[in-house]
Amino acid sequence: MNKIHIPFLVTILFIFNFLGAEEFNLKINDSTSFDGEWPMIASLPFAKGELRDPSAIKIMKGSREVACQVDVATRWQDGSVRWALAGFTGNPQAEYKVEYGKGIVRKGHTNPIKISRAPDGGFSIDTGAAVYRFETDKLMPQEAWLGNGGNRIELLRNSGNGMYLVDQKGRTARVAGQSAEVENSFAKEGPGRIVLKRSGYYVTDGGEKLARAEAWFYFAAGTPSIRITHSIIFTRDTNEVWFRDYGMEFKTPEAPRDVYCALGSQDNHRVKRVETNGREVYMVQEDYPHFLERTYKATVGISDKGKDAPVENAETADDWAHGNYGNHGITIAMPWLAERFPKEISFGPQGARAVLWSGRSGKELDFRAKTVVKEYMKSWAEVILKNPSDKDLDNVKSNAQGAARTHDIWFIPQAGGYREDVVKKMAQRASNPPLILADTARLCKTEAMGFPMLQKDEKQFPEEESLLSDYWTRFLLPLRAFPMNGYMAWGCYPDRSYDSGNNKAMAIMQVISTLREYGVRREPWRLYARSGERRYYNWGHKFSRFTGDWYLVHDDAPGKARGAFISTNPASGLASKMPLFWGEKSWTYVIDAGDIGHWLLDYCLT
């Protein structure tokens, strides 16, 4: 009798234990057809009171659990989980679902990321696929190896001082040494995902601090790649100190045999192979349509003993270049490289370089009004500003001190020789990462966005959905006619307003500016959440970066309170007609959803 009933009772208890468990599907938007593993972050919303314990969440691929790390992004007022971010390595071409609730227990990582700390404060991060070692007084990884164990391939050597900046006087400053005051903190330290923040000052050989760098390094278990989010913070008066060139060097123990540079767009794509023979091979985007300018200029060239020789010219450089070292390769990818000109990727005896302002463009990163008008605004300034004199422009206050500029850089090492199909698709995936949301109907039902809304439903509401989609398309039309590209204005909204006076050309921007202040900041995220469409994400993410860099004061500056909002338009005069985003003053303000909502939603949804 006991033998008959015990299995039955065990089954009943097992079923009861899982009666409270629920599930929902994940929706993946992947821009490539690459059938390979990639580190991904899934955005998981929950209704108020629905879930309190994040350990009761797991990711499933069919009937198999996928190792993942779950971090709580925000909670409801009652303490229950509102948004969670699940980081895991998987194939974006596959289908995944989330199981959560009563009876669900997430398994631990079988091969977690390991951190080894040295007595001097240095440390190494082992993802299982690569090892990166950091020293206390150098911002970049000092050494790196592909693989682990006895068959490791050396990737980086003496690379810790690779974060560099060159000022207008030709002085090189690096984020290295005691004077750089390098700081280190782990924003996430889990078995599947590590987010490392490092910061410090760009310091010359003479000990002078020219600017500040903040870099976030993202590591994922089982993958050798790292994503670096880098911000330069302008700590000096930019009327006194400006720059010719800055970026980061990944110093390698040897030069690559040849370099593959991607040119053109995804629709018109080609790869140029150049042998190094001990020389540096570079790919630079010098110009790209912006404001009223319509010039494209990209170049692949060779630099030998300080002399540059173009090899091929093109309209646009793509987002990546690859160095082939024989038994391994390194891909550097920079999302939206051409749009954010002047940008450069190069490989040579010194290693790989991701150049965030390329001196090869012949321009300097100079925020003075005179320089911005002549080198960036050009024909727009001739029409709108009516060719102001140098004297008039010298009287315009233009100091970007306290502002910042942020970029993403991917460092992607791979074992083996160059395979164009694999390298190309991995680089494209870095530039256009997989976007993973909960099923949009479920997302809307939870009201985790903070307000009631309905998922995109073209069957029940075809006319309404067509109206919304068409309105957004029309709203962005000014960006096609008047593209806000380049280092200065990339990510700006289409309704940027200036004091136009009698200038009819700018009147429409004046009228629409109110919309920008009272809703447009969050609207792309609502549209993205209810549809999962990438076009809303792309605009929302760019705008988050733009406002985060130019709208807040990131460092001490005369007349600007740190952390306060920047006043971008002086009250009157020539300056009020110019897009000098960094502003001269700042003011404290009540922080509400209209001001930081787009940043918070960017984080929770991506």
Notable traits:
17-stranded antiparallel β-sheet; 606 residues; eight-stranded mixed β-sheet; globular; 35% strand; 32 strands; single chain; 13 helices; alpha+beta
Description of the molecule:
The protein is an alpha+beta fold. Helix content is 22%, strand content 35%. It is built from 13 helices and 32 strands. The chain has a 17-stranded antiparallel β-sheet that branches. An 8-stranded mixed β-sheet has the order 4-3-7-1-30-2-6-5. A hairpin with a 3-residue loop joins β25 (317-324) and β26. α11 runs antiparallel to α12. The protein is globular and about 70 Å long. 45% of the residues are buried.
The helix content is 10-25%
- Count of separate DSSP helical elements: 13
How far apart the termini lie comes to: 55 Å
Strand content: 25-35%
Morphology: globular
The biggest beta sheet is recorded as:
17 strands, antiparallel
Q: Please count the beta strands (DSSP E, at least 2 residues each).
A: 32
| Radius of gyration, taken over Cα atoms and rounded to an integer in Å | 25 Å
The low-confidence runs, each spanning 5 or more residues with pLDDT under 50, are 9-18, 501-516
What value does the average pLDDT take? 90
